[in-house]
Amino acid sequence: MMNVPFNKPYMTGKELWYISQAHASGHLAGDGTFTKKCNAWLEQNIGSQKALLTHSCTAALEISAMLADIRPGDEVIMPSYTFVSTANAFVLRGAVPVFVDVRPDTQNIDETKIEAAITERTRAIVPVHYAGVACEMDTIMDIARRHNLLVIEDAAQGIMSTYKGRPLGSIGHMAALSFHETKNIISGEGGALLVNDPRFVARAEIIREKGTNRSQFFRGQVDKYTWVDVGSSYLPGEIMAAFLWAQMEEADMINRRRLDIWANYHQWFASLEKAGKVRRPTIPRECTHNAHMYYLMFPDIESRSAVIARLKARGIQTVFHYIPLHSSPVGKEMGRAADDMSHTDAAGERLLRLPLWIGLEAEHADVIAEVVAAINEN
Ligand SMILES: *Cc1c(COP(=O)(O)O)cnc(C)c1O
């Protein structure tokens, strides 16, 4: 029987070499040579004012909630169809997550429903670029401007994707990236905060450095460092940054190889979509994507369960997500749904993610396509 895991982290082959360099340098704490290389890569490739590696995307979102000065009772608008960290980072500051339904084509927050969810307590909008496909950012930025709100992009899945030619993570006031091993560019655990609005740069460094001005001290801008703000410990060590650097060097190749697998799936499932048996992902014309995931939407939960079971019987692992946050125990207690959540509920019940990793063989993908195509046949 085949054994096709859902995900298999890709290694470029240079990770251990760079880790050995970090080891030899004797600098193992954060903000050494490799962290600086990674930060510079992000600033160049994404065009942010400032990029700061963190130990996770969750950490970067937490920093962004502090930078946005979120206070108890403030409201933050976000999709419910997302990972818990999108909400948790703000709930930790006492905020109420206000969940807006997603679009049925991209599973991204429905920009046409955001304005109705705004109240006098709203402080920020957190668009999540699901599957590395951009939210309708022009509309979202325009709403934010008119209502004086901050936009924090959860670009955990969005590295190397673009919206109208602009890299994801460069559009909102700030953004968070993830390098978790399930993402495209990885370091096991890892993330980055991207700061695009210069007003937040100095404070971002301070919050990330335990609320001290140590970064300024190291640059010789102050003659001692001290406690100047709230903050926590958000720096990754150099070992992790060394691993990440090996991945960043190969980022274009990783992106290309993932896109090839994605394109094959997309072609295979075209006829099934035509026959009305599944829906394939939609990439809006103004977006380029990074093949972060390939998913199918089934007509109902029963057909999805049947496909999962049949693939499992052939040794192929697939996963679904998310339990919508508005129907989770903590989401119900801490947050609220702004309105109807039917597209969110549908995605939670009917969306299935297929294996997508570098090294996935064409024969695996053939079997996957064949098993899925057999849906409704008996
Ligand atoms: C993966 C992910 C996160 C969390 O990233 P970590 O680096 O594991 O903290 C947050 N939001 C979304 C949308 C994600 O996919």
Automatic annotation (TrEMBL):
Q: Which InterPro entries match?
A: DegT/StrS_aminotransferase, PyrdxlP-dep_Trfase, PyrdxlP-dep_Trfase_major, WecE-like
UniProt key word Transmembrane helix: no
Query: Pfam families this protein is in?
Result: DegT_DnrJ_EryC1
Q: Name one GO molecular function term.
A: dTDP-4-amino-4,6-dideoxygalactose transaminase activity
Gene3D superfamilies per record: Type I PLP-dependent aspartate aminotransferase-like (Major domain) (3.40.640.10)
* UniProtKB keywords: Aminotransferase, Pyridoxal phosphate, Transferase
Q: What is its EC number?
A: 2.6.1.59
Q: Where is the signal peptide?
A: none
Recorded hits in CDD domains, A to Z, give: AHBA_syn
Task: Look up the domain of life of the source.
Answer: Bacteria
Q: Does the keyword Kinase apply?
A: no
Q: Hey, which family's this protein in?
A: Belongs to the DegT/DnrJ/EryC1 family.
Its name, as the record gives it, is: dTDP-4-amino-4,6-dideoxygalactose transaminase
Supply the source organism for this entry. Answer: Massilia agri
